[in-house]
Amino acid sequence: MKCFFVTALSNIEIPGDLGRGDKITDTAFITNNSPAIERYLTPGFEKSAGSLETNFIRRAPAVIYGLEDRPDTTIPDEFVLEKLSLINSYLNSLWLFKDNAVDNQLVFGICTKTGESVIHSNEHMVRLSTSDGGCLATTFSREELKEARKLFNDHIRIGRFVPTGSSAAVAPLSRLQRALYFTSGARSQNDIGLKVTHYCSAIEALFAMGNTELTHQLSERVASFLEDDPQRRVELYTDVKRAYGLRSIVVHGAGTKAANLDKFIEAARTLDMILRQVYLKIFTDEIALALIHLDDAQFNSHFLLRIFGASWKDVSAGENVPPLSGARCHPEAGGVVDET
């Protein structure tokens, strides 16, 4: 069975002609060249998808598409859901480079067997926005797209996170997986206060152990995780602590005056940037990756040593630190899993 999928992207600009497209996976491509996919937008496709949707795809600044051989037992709606998840993960990879609102519209899938085709479509019922709630177009170079593909395939190529009727709190997810889940939630919120709240939840998922003096603990750990310079640590500590003060206003229902909206926007932008730095450090630094997968007792003791001046290299030399090799991304379960 041949299965084709396509989705139009919005809020993105890509200089130059990508032609047939740059690979995302072996069977998925991103292109800004409309003629490259025209042969797939057949009269049968247009009749099923509708002329408005088909022309929207043709005029889109970029599309993600693919054609692959699938078993004859493939269910079209499951095929579309699989691609919807893949596309969402790739868009998260683009976010690792810069704050953006690149989004996709309906995903169409058409599966053909012995001359008969079945078409299905689906979409996320949310829209991505920048940290300040905006949706202006962001430019990505071809080199940035290639680097995003590498991050996608190495680290954040994920399946659907949480089954319907379950919760990230009870699902068997790692700290990193839960953090990415909350970050996606922040990026799909238009309410700036809720963006701040979800960003804070992502930080908690990565660094929190217990509820005692949580604001101080998280601010201190983010600062010591990212920075060696004392002055920069103080600045990060202050930024995170200030954001948590705003989070409390949101989650405890206290409310605040409209003049404070700028403070929420500034906090959202700051947390968005901080989380991007945290993820990139985890994905590119072997010690940082191993740290995130320590058990709770080791995690706490390592941060205590770090806060009192030890380097991560010195901390990782301890005999209780797990091996740093063998950790990789699981393409189905999501995030990074430790296979040592």
Short description:
With 340 residues, the protein is of the alpha+beta class.
Describe the structure.
The structure is a single chain. Helix 4 crosses helix 5. 37% of the residues are buried. With 340 residues, the protein is of the alpha+beta class. The chain has helices at residues 35-38, 43-49, 51-59, 76-95, 142-156, 175-187, 192-207, 214-226, 230-251, 261-284, 286-292, 296-307, 312-316; strands at 2-10, 12-13, 22-25, 28-31, 62-69, 103-113, 116-122, 138-139, 327-329, 336-338. It is built from 13 helices and 10 strands. Mean pLDDT is 86; it is low at 319-340. Strand 9 (327-329) and strand 10 form a beta hairpin. Helix content is 49%, strand content 16%.
Structural class: alpha+beta
- Indicate the overall shape: elongated
Oligomeric form of this entry? single chain
Helix share of residues? 40-55%
Strand content: 15-25%
What characterizes the major β-sheet? 6 strands, antiparallel
Low-confidence stretches: 319-340
Rg computed from alpha carbons, rounded to a whole number of angstroms: 22 Å
What's the average pLDDT? 86
Q: What is the number of E strands?
A: 10
The N- to C-terminal Cα distance equals 38 Å
Order of helices and strands: EEEEHHHEHEEEHHHHHHHHHEE
Strand order of the largest sheet: 3-4-5-1-6-7
Number of helices: 13
